[in-house]
Design goal:
This protein is an alpha/beta fold. Helices cover 46% and strands 20% of the residues. The chain has a five-stranded mixed sheet with strand order 10-9-8-11-12, with helices on both faces. Strands 1-2-5-4 form a four-stranded mixed sheet. The longest helix has 25 residues. The chain is elongated and about 90 Å long. Bound molecules: zinc ion. Zinc ion binds next to loops.
């Protein structure tokens, strides 16, 4: 049997009530394109686009074109003159077209196709690869994400992590995002993202998830950021609120880095040779002590044998790692007492500040041990890193809205539309 394009289309993309009547290879300014003409099926009547119920035809509108998935890199177009129908309930409206969505000149199959590629490539690259515009890729992904958000299941969310993420260049308030993740063992995903990091932002986020989800939470994980603590205490009082390891460690690291930078500047200003020793030590100091190996280990060892303030601050930070190994709340409590006592006597202001902060949030901190085994600190950290990969490409997104769509698209694990049709990629 001779294979025709029509045979393939009928096999992979049949539309009930419509037939592929004519398919032609044409060229415009020496560029090829496929013209796929669609006609109504003779025996099957039209449907109303509002209620999807059968409705008799009224008249016919001028022909429209929709972009379809390219075949052998040849752009393909559907052409069809939609009927208007006279629906008993909705009056005279345009008929339901199963390959299209609203007024867009692009088929849903093509929007799914572009969206799936936009997860593997940047939007710009996707546009270039399939000979379309950035705007077209953006609108496709936007439709894809909105469909996913409307159809996702939020049952069974028991643990969430709340965090702030910085994006863009400045430290202005609107260059922060508030994110809510699901951090259950069986499912880790981005649930919500919104601009800024205020109480209002988080309240909006929790409201978007819905009362049922918030009331069903068992664990909530966050940093010591005051606006978040307030809102979580008010909205999800039944959940065990945990200050997690990842956030505490990053506070210690920030304090240590502050000490290093200040000391380095001081030594350089005084023309002391030790300034050299602090150079290029940043990541070696910030890593967990037992994870620094080889030549870096020797450099770190040499630095730690000095009388520098940075060395003492590092020792405090490294000592705190021990805290996480406790099995009992009591043991951990004793250790915290000891550690903060030492830090407060260290005469290193950034470390003292961390110690005071830990003491004032002791209860929430101890919840980490009460929730042991239920919450993984790597979950929030891992998702944050993935978000950074996306926001760093943000120069290509132009607007905040576009970035938000991209975040849901890559991290939301959203259900996908068009599962009934052929997967083109
Ligand atoms: Zn109707």
């Amino acid at each position: 049997m001779q294979l025709e394009v029509k045979t393939i289309l009928n096999k992979i993309q049949p539309f009930l009530g419509f037939v592929y009547s004519d398919i032609r290879l044409r060229s415009l300014k020496r560029k090829l394109y496929l013209e796929i003409t669609i006609e109504p099926h003779q025996a099957i009547g039209s449907k109303c686009s509002m209620c999807r119920k059968p409705a008799p035809g009224y008249d016919r509108l001028p022909e429209r074109w929709w972009r379809f998935v390219p075949l052998w890199a040849i752009p393909a177009w559907f052409r069809y003159a939609p009927r208007r129908v006279e629906c008993a309930e909705d009056g005279v409206v345009v008929e339901h077209l199963p390959w299209s969505e609203g007024k867009r000149p692009i088929t849903t199959a093509m929007m799914c196709f572009l969206s799936r590629w936009a997860r593997r490539l940047s939007w710009r690259e996707t546009a270039r690869a399939f000979d379309t515009s950035w705007e077209c890729v953006y609108r496709s992904v936007e439709w894809f994400v909105q469909w996913g958000l409307a159809h996702r299941q939020l049952e069974g969310v028991t643990s969430i992590g709340v965090d702030e993420i910085h994006w863009g260049q400045s430290k202005r308030a609107d260059h922060f995002l508030t994110v809510i993740y699901q951090i259950d063992r069986h499912c880790r995903r981005l649930l919500w993202v919104g601009p800024r990091r205020t109480q209002a932002t988080l309240r909006r986020g929790l409201a978007a998830l819905g009362e049922d989800v918030v009331k069903g939470l068992s664990f909530v994980c966050s940093d010591m950021w005051r606006p978040y603590l307030n809102v979580l205490a008010a909205k999800a009082a039944q959940a065990l609120h945990v200050l997690d390891r990842f956030h505490i460690t990053s506070h210690l690291n920030q304090a240590l880095d502050q000490v290093r930078r200040a000391e380095s500047a001081r030594l350089r200003a005084a023309g002391r040779p030790q300034a050299e020793q602090l150079k290029n030590m940043r990541w070696k100091l910030l890593r967990r002590g037992n994870r620094v190996r080889g030549r870096a280990r020797c450099q770190l060892g040499r630095l730690l044998r000095t009388k520098l303030v940075t060395a003492r601050a590092w020792a405090l930070k490294d000592l705190f790692e021990h805290f996480w190994t406790y099995k009992s709340v009591r043991g951990a409590g004793h250790f915290l007492e000891y550690w903060t006592w030492r830090a407060l006597r260290s005469r290193i202001e950034p470390m003292k500040k961390v110690a005071r902060m830990l003491r004032s949030h002791q209860d929430l901190l101890m919840n980490w041990f009460r929730a042991k085994g239920e919450i993984s600190s790597a979950a929030v950290e891992g998702l944050n890193n993935k978000i950074r990969v996306v926001t760093r490409r943000s120069y290509g997104f132009r607007t905040y809205e576009a970035m938000e769509i991209a975040l849901y698209h890559t991290l939301g694990r959203l259900p996908e539309p068009g599962e009934f049709t052929h997967r083109f990629c």
